[in-house]
Structures are given as C-alpha cells and as structure tokens.
Amino acid sequence: SRFFTRYRASVVVLIVSHNICLIDTFSNVSGMGCYQSVSYGTAFEEDPLIDDICSTASDDGIKVVLLGSGETGKSTIFKRIALECGNGFDTADKAQYVRPIHENVIESMKILVANQMLQSDRMGFKLKEENKRFAKMIEAIDYDETLSTKLAKAIKSLWNDPSIQRIWAKRSHYQIPDTADYFFSRIDALVKKDYIPSGDDILRCRDRTTGIHKESLEIDKIDYVCIDVGGQTSERSIWVEVFRDIKAVIYLVSLSEYDQLMFEDEKTNRLEDSLLTWDIVVNRKRFEQDAVIPFVLIFNKTDLFREKLELGQSRFSFEGYDGPQQYEAIRKYLIQKFTAKNSQSLPMKTFFMCALSDDIHCVFDAFREYFDCGWD
Known about the structure:
Blueprint: H1 2-7, E1 10-16, H2 48-60, E2 62-68, H3 74-84, H4 91-95, H5 98-123, H6 129-140, H7 149-159, H8 162-169, H9 180-184, H10 187-190, H11 199-204, E3 212-219, E4 222-229, E5 246-254, H12 270-282, H13 286-289, E6 295-300, H14 302-311, H15 327-340, E7 348-352, H16 361-373
Parallel strand pairs: 1-2, 1-4, 2-5, 5-6, 6-7
Antiparallel strand pairs: 3-4
Helix pairs in contact: 5-8, 6-7
C-alpha cells in the first residue's frame, strides 16, 4: 500500500501523560478551574534525551501521539502493548512493580479508613469492634510502609468489614483507585516472600509515569516504537507543542468517571475535563496548517461504566443529558458530544473498550486502514 511504501512500515507511538506540556492553546484558557494555577515547566524541545528520541523517530516513522486526562488508562495500554506485542516483562522488570503494588494497597485502605472515620458519626458507618484497632494501625502508617504479614491481616479484615464496604460502594466520591478491590482480593499472595507480579497485577498497578519509557514491537509485520513519556504529578502542566511530524492522535476518555472529580483539584468533573481537553486538542490551529491528522477516540473503562449504570447509584447527567440511563443511549450521546467539537472535520474513528481486556490491535488496524485507503 502507499502508506507502508512511503513510510517504510515504521511507526512511533508517543504516549503522553495528562500533565505533560503538549498543547500551546492552554496558555490562552482562563477561568478553567485548575488550569489557572499551573506552572509551565520546561518545554520538551529543550530536553536532549527527548529531542534525540523525536529526531530518531522522525527519520523513518509515523508518530502517533496518545493523549488524555489523568486516570484514563494511557499507561495501561502502554503496558498491554509491552506485554502482548513487545518484549514483555522479564522477572526483574516484574519485580520492580512489587513496591508500587504494595503502596497501591496501603494507599487505598488508608483512603477507605479515613473516609469511614469521617462518615461514622454522620452516616452511622460503624466498624466492627475488632477492626477499630486495625483502623488505627492503618491510619498511623505512611503510604510507603512495607506491606508486612501483620498489615495484610489488618487490611484483609477491614476490607471484609461492612462499614468499609459501604464506603467502597460510594468510591466515586473519593480518590480511590478503581483496581483496589482486585488487589485486596489477592492480599495473601502479595505478601509472600517469593511474590512476583503477574501480567494482570502489572496492568492494574496504578503507577504514575516519570521519565521516558520506550517499547519496540512488531504487529502484522509492522515495526513500532512505543514511547511512554511521564511527568511530575504535583502539577497540571500546560501542554505545548513539542513533537514534530505528528501523523495521528489517539485520545483516551474514561467513560466510567462521569461522576468523579479530578485528582488535581477535586473540583473539576473528570469527564468535563476530558471534553474540554479534547476540544482544545482537536481544534489546534496547527492542524489547519499540517497534513490531515486522523484521530482515534477511545472511551475506556466500559466495564466499570456498565457496572455503575446497573447499580443505579449515580445517574449519568453529563452536559445536561436527560435520556434513558442505558449504555447504548449514552454511548450515542457521547459520540455526538465529542464529534461536535471536531470543527475542522478531521478524520476520526471511535472505540469503546476496556483497556484491561479488549483487543488493542483494533487501534493499529484502524490507522493502517486510514493510511492505506482512508476511513469512510
């Protein structure tokens, strides 16, 4: 095909976390909550390591930039690519996830206990007598405490307490990782001396990316280099343009977080932030001057979204939606809302998926189709 003949079948995927400088138009946004107080930081083009990676990539390949707000699943997709399509993780690589997983477990239980204590008097969320001592133990430790057998026993007992379960049922109100229940159910395995994280453990580990991570892989005889670029988690940096010769964009939205607030300011709705950011990304003035850029829009975490709808604990009322609380109806509504922001009519294709389990090859197949013969 003309696409693979022209570009020598070499593709580079740049995965950029939500707090990395990429979009210069944020500098013109005011009155947008958390965006007013962020710092600019250093532009990527001044970093020799990133500049070297970008320069090498642009020699042969097509750059596909992956964007999205925090907690949308960008790192999950990167790790799935590495596990399933790349070189995978050897034992040493897997061992590096032990500490972050332990910290995930402790952090999650500390959040649950703290909110249980806040709600105990007002809502009558009382711990069982034997768990009150465990709650004080959890409250007193640091997030980076070693996950000992003693701590694991306390966490396991607390997790099974009806009061903690009631807080967990309302987890969308708190900043609790949505994979906490998975790790709580595996607490006994996590504290074994010979514990090595499985692929599923690694995918569910919430670890904020720092530095640069690169993965080489081949899909359908096409060579890819996936680059996961991290950044500071203490601030929401303004995104400025730094990557040259971008040929395609993948944008992630967390479908299930329509009733949750951003980690950064606990004021801005996460789905609203995703729509705002999408509006800025897809309407960048630079795209008017470049060759046509195709977009893949991914609504992630469909499994958690369906679960919320089925439980009926939180109505979907995003952007004034007053239709039925049904998956298909909301799905069509969101496609319409996000598509309407594409004022430049750039080519776009939409996927609804669970990044933990659904086939990710469809994304690369879509780009291959576009550059080969276009999208209908």
